[in-house]
Design brief:
The protein has about 250 residues and is an alpha/beta fold. The protein is built from 8 helices and 7 strands, in the order βαβαβαβαβαβαααβ. It has a 7-stranded parallel β-sheet, with helices on both faces. The termini are far apart. This is SDR family NAD(P)-dependent oxidoreductase. InterPro entries: KR_dom, NAD(P)-bd_dom_sf, Sc_DH/Rdtase_CS, SDR_fam. It comes from Chitinophaga pollutisoli.
């Protein structure tokens, strides 16, 4: 287990109060990391910290306020110490026909799902590259792998995140900072389960093109993030790992 051990590593996980982010935070803590979870709602973060147990720190913030991100990172490192691992999980969704999406709606999704991811990664990487060590893990989506209707802004953002992963890896890996991406498939969360159970045709379509014929668990994504953040992935950078039961290659 030594190569997957995160003991002594400090991890900042955005959107860590619920869903995939909560699963990542819980799993990182289980592998020894000192975990900081960030999100918009302080009450949700506090409840998540209690549920995980242990020494979980919380930061309530709105990452769409890009101008505040440098100060945010300064504050985190001043209060808690150097950030060794960043997991960019926070994001918003918009389900709407492309013809109906306004410029303001499109920009809003990109601001949170792309611009904030870049700004936070940049500010954290400034410090990581100076220390010659660090790991950044992006969370992408199947929307970056193939066309999914009614999620045009989300698709644009996640496709760009995968591109940024490669560009950042090329620039920062010579200074000891690895940058990788996880593209979750259809994962069984409370929200997704409700949506699919209310739409049997969609659920059958999802399972029909997933060779493993089942939905993933949040822990599947979390364990992939542990791997990419750990010494076990020490020679891996600039890659996108599909955690999808084969959905992205299914027919």
């Amino acid at each position: 287990m030594h190569d997957f051990d995160l003991s002594g590593k400090r991890a900042l996980i955005t959107g860590g109060g619920s869903g995939l982010g909560l699963a990542v935070a819980r799993t990182f803590a289980g592998y020894g990391a000192d975990v900081i979870i960030a999100g918009r709602r302080a009450d949700v973060l506090e409840a998540a910290a209690v549920a995980i147990g242990g020494n979980i720190r919380t930061i309530a913030c709105d990452l769409s306020q890009l101008e505040m991100i440098p100060e945010l990172v300064d504050g985190i490192e001043s209060a808690f110490g150097p950030i060794d691992v960043l997991v960019n999980n926070a994001g918003i969704h918009l389900k709407k026909d492309a013809l109906e999406v306004s410029d303001a709606e499109f920009e809003s999704v990109l601001r949170t799902n792309l611009q904030a991811v870049f700004a936070l990664s940049r500010e954290v990487a400034r410090r990581m590259t100076a220390r010659k060590s660090g790991s950044i893990v992006m969370i992408s989506s199947m929307a970056a792998k193939y066309g999914i209707p009614k999620v045009i802004a989300y698709t644009a953002a996640k496709s760009a995140v995968e591109g940024m992963t490669k560009a950042m890896a090329v620039e920062w890996s010579p200074d000891g900072v690895r940058v990788n991406c996880i593209a979750p498939g259809f994962i069984e969360t409370e929200m997704s389960a409700k949506a699919l159970n209310n739409d049997p045709d969609r659920k059958n379509r999802v399972l029909g093109r997933t060779p493993m014929r089942k939905l993933g668990k949040p822990e599947d994504v979390a364990l992939a993030a542990v791997f990419l953040a750990s010494p076990a992935a020490g020679f891996i950078t600039g890659t996108s790992l599909a955690v999808d039961g084969g959905n992205s290659i299914g027919f």
